[in-house]
Amino acid sequence: MICGASNEATLEQGGGVETSKILNITYAPDITVTSPIYSQNDAIRTVTCDPSGNPDSYIYHKWQHKSKYGDIIREFGGNKTLKLPDVQVRLRYQDSGEYVCTASNGIKNTFNKLEQTGSGLVSVNAQPVFTSDTIDRVKQFGEINKAVAIYVNVYSVPKFTNVVWTRDGIPIPTQNSAKYQLSSSSSIVQDKIHGKEVQLDGYNVTLTIHDLEANDFANYTVTLKSGFPDVKFITVLESASVPDIPGNFSQRDSAFTSFTVQWDPGSGGGYKQTFYIQYRVQGSSKWTSVSSGEEDINEQRRRRTYEVSNLQEGKAYELRMYAENKAMKRSNFTDVLIAFTTSSASTTSSVVIGAVVGVVVTLVIVCTSCIVILLIKRSQGKDQKEKNDKCYVNTGFQNIQNGDEYEEVENKFELTKVETVSGVKGSTVQLECPYKTPQGKRILWSRKTNPAIQYIDGTNINPDLPAELKFRLTVTGDHTAGYYHLSISDVRESDGGPYECFVSGTSGSVTTLQLTIITLKEDINMRFKMAIPS
C-alpha cells in the first residue's frame, strides 16, 4: 500500500513525498477436490485436495468417501493427495463417489469455523454390475395364464449399450413380440460398496412375459454388453401357487387371558409357508396379527396349535388366519372363529358343576339298584303288571310279552345312548360325540326339536342358523383322529334340550345328549321321579 502527499512548494520543485506499507491479509482456505476419470483397468487412482487461503501452510485432516446420497462409506488419514487402496479389477467401480477433504490454515471463516471442507466426484468407468438387491432374485415366480416381470437391478457407468435375454440358452425375440417385452429404466438401486450397503443411481432391466404357459417356467439369462467384458445373470422362473387355506381352525381350550387354537395345514403351493393369526375383541375394528409358525415343504404335515396370549379376561374374540409362502403368495382367510377367554364366574361354575355330577352319579346308582330289584322279582314269578307299575326304565327297546318269551323290537337306530350334560349359564359347554368318523363319512349334529334343526355337518356350521347362535358354535375335537364335538359358548337357557350326533349315511348308533342349563342364582335341584318296587 502506498501513501503520497504534496504541497505548493513541492509542486514548484516538481515533486512530492510518499511512503509505502505492505499489508498481510489472512483468510481461511477455499478447498477444491480434483481427480481424473478412471477406468477399471487403472491400478493407480488418486484424489487431490487443493486448498487456497492465506497463509498457504495447511494441516490436512481426514478424508471421507461418501455415496451420492450422503452415506459415509469409508475414511482415510489426512494428506494433500489421497492414493486409493488397490482392489480387484471387478471391484474398482466401488471407488466411485464423493470424496471430502478437510484442511485448515489456522484462520477461521466467517462462520467462526477453523476446519474447512471441500468435495469432488470421482468416477471409475467399469463393466456393468448386478447389484446386491438382485442377488436374492435367483428365483422369481409366476402363475399360469398371467403376466410376469422378471427383472434385475444394475449399476453401470457408463450405461450398458445392449441387453440380450435367453431362455435355456436360446435367444428370446423381444422386438415386435406380443409375448415378450424388454424394458430398462433409471432406478435407485442398493449395492454393497466396500462392505457397506448404500444407495446408488442405477437401472432396472425387465423382461415381461405375457400369458405364461407351462414351458415358460425355465432358466432365463440376461447379458449386458458395454465397452468392457460382458456380464451375465441367471434367474429361474418357477410356478407360484397360492397356499391352501388352513383347515379345521377351531378353539382347543381357554384360560383367563389366553386361549389355544388349532388348525390343519394345507399345501404351501410348493414352498415353505408361514401361518398368521389375526384376532380382535368382538365388535372392534382393528385386527392384531401374530406369526404362529412355519412349515417347510419337506416337513411332515401335522395338526398345529398356538396359544394366543395377553388377552382380556372373560371376553369374546373374533379370530381368522391365513398362510403365506416363500413366493409371497397368500391364501384367503379362514372363516371367522369366535373364541372366549375364561371369566372368574366360569371358575365358580366349575365347582357347581362338580357337585351336580356327584348328584347324577348317585342317582345312576339308585336307578341301577331299581333294575336289579325288578329282575329279582321277575325271577320269583311276580306279576308282570306289578313290576311295570312300580318301576320303568327306558332301555331303547320295547319289550313285548309272548308267554314266558320276550321279543326285542328295534327302534329306528340300532342303539340310542342318552347322556346328560350340565352347563352354567354364560359358560362354554362342549357336547362330545363318541363316534370316530369312518373314511368318507361325516359327523352330523342336530337339535332334537320338531322338526329337528341341523347344527353341524362335519366342520361346517349351518349358515341358515341365526347369526347370534351361529357365532356361538364351534366344531372342536381331534379332527385328525376323526372326532367332532359341538362347543356352545355363552350358553343360555334357550340352549337347553336334547342334541343328537350320528355318522352320516348310516343307520348305526345315535347319541343323544340332554343339555341342562344351570343358573347360579337358582338352587341346584335335580329331581328324578321313579317308582321303587316294594
Structural features:
534 residues, mainly beta, Immunoglobulin-like, 4 domains, 5-stranded mixed sheet, 38 strands
Account of the 3D structure:
The chain is mainly beta. The chain folds into four domains: 27-124, Immunoglobulins (Immunoglobulin-like); 129-239, Immunoglobulin-like; 247-340, Immunoglobulin-like, CATH 2.60.40; 413-518, Immunoglobulins (Immunoglobulin-like). The chain is 10% helix and 44% strand. The protein has five helices and 38 strands. The strands form eleven sheets. It has a six-stranded mixed sheet. A five-stranded mixed sheet has the order 13-20-19-15-16, with no helix packed on it. A hairpin with a 5-residue loop joins strand 6 (59-66) and strand 7. The longest helix has 36 residues, at 344-379. The protein is elongated and about 165 Å long. The chain starts with a strand and ends in a 16-residue tail after the last strand.
Q: Could you give the topology of this structure?
A:
Elements: E1 2-5, H1 8-12, E2 17-20, E3 27-34, E4 38-39, E5 46-54, E6 59-66, E7 72-76, E8 81-83, E9 97-104, E10 116-122, E11 124-125, E12 129-130, H2 132-135, E13 139-142, E14 148-155, E15 162-167, E16 170-171, E17 180-193, E18 196-209, E19 219-225, E20 231-239, E21 247-254, E22 259-264, E23 273-281, E24 288-295, E25 304-308, E26 316-325, E27 337-340, H3 344-379, H4 384-390, E28 398-402, E29 405-409, E30 416-424, E31 429-431, E32 443-447, E33 453-457, E34 460-461, H5 467-470, E35 473-476, E36 485-488, E37 497-503, E38 510-518
Parallel strand pairs: 4-11, 13-20, 30-38
Antiparallel strand pairs: 1-2, 3-5, 5-8, 6-7, 6-9, 9-10, 12-14, 14-18, 15-16, 15-19, 17-18, 19-20, 21-22, 22-25, 23-24, 23-26, 26-27, 28-29, 31-36, 32-33, 32-37, 33-34, 35-36, 37-38
